[in-house]
Amino acid sequence: MSSENTVVVGMSGGVDSSVAALLLKRAGYHVIGLFMKNWEDDDDDEYCSTREDLVDAAAAADVVGIDFEAVNFAAEYKDRVFADFLREYAAGRTPNPDVLCNAEIKFKSFLDHAIKLGASRIATGHYAGVRERDGRFELLRAADASKDQSYFLHRLSQAQLSKVLFPLSDIRKTEVRRIAAEAGLGNHAKKDSTGICFIGERPFREFLNRYLPRQPGPMLDDHGRVIGEHMGLMFYTLGQRKGIGLGGSKDGSGEPWFVAAKDVAKNSITVVQGHDHPLLQSAHLAAADANWVAGAAPEAGRVFGAKTRYRQSDAPCTLSADGNLRFELDFDAPQWAVTPGQSAVLYDGEICLGGGIINAAGLRRTPTRPA
Question: Is there a catalytic annotation at residue 317?
Answer without folding.
Answer: no
